[in-house]
Amino acid sequence: MAWRFTTDKPVYIQISERITRSVLSGEYKSGEQIPSVRQLALEAAVNPNTVQHAFSELENDGLIISKGTLGRFVTDNKEIIETCRLRMAKKIVEDFINDMNQLSIPKNQIISIIEEASI
């Protein structure tokens, strides 16, 4: 089944974010090979060039590494993975706060909402 994409950002970024989440959640483990460009393009129902663009972004971030004809693998570098985790967490929080600000919800009420929703 094809992946679902939104119109608010480029597809290659959404693919990159999805792969990042897969790494951070442990779906793709440190040192593990990830699916090929062609495999992901078929799965996501997108052009292989779009997946290649996403992979290039992930390689620039250091999250995945290319081993030539062997394929691409998740980095073994725990520091890079943790940096990506923190970057994604900050982005999620920033998006949440922006949404709350658009609703004109004051800071103390935002904190209260978070406390009520916490596990």
Provide structural commentary.
- With 119 residues, the protein is mainly α.
- Helix content is 61%, strand content 5%.
- β1 (64-66) and β2 (72-74) form a beta hairpin.
- α1 (11-24) packs across α3 and α2 crosses α3 (48-61).
- The chain is globular.
**How many angstroms does the end-to-end distance come to?**
33 Å
Spatial shape: globular
The count of β-strands is 2
Helical fraction: 55-70%
Name the helix and strand elements from N-terminus to C-terminus, one letter apiece.
HHHEEHH
Instruction: Output the number of helix runs.
Output: 5
> Hey, roughly how much beta strand do the residues contain?
5-15%
Radius of gyration: 17 Å
Average pLDDT value? Answer: 94
Strand order of the largest sheet: 1-2
The parts where pLDDT drops under 50 for at least 5 residues are: none
SSE class = mainly alpha
Q: Biggest sheet, open or closed, and with what strands and sense?
A: 2 strands, antiparallel
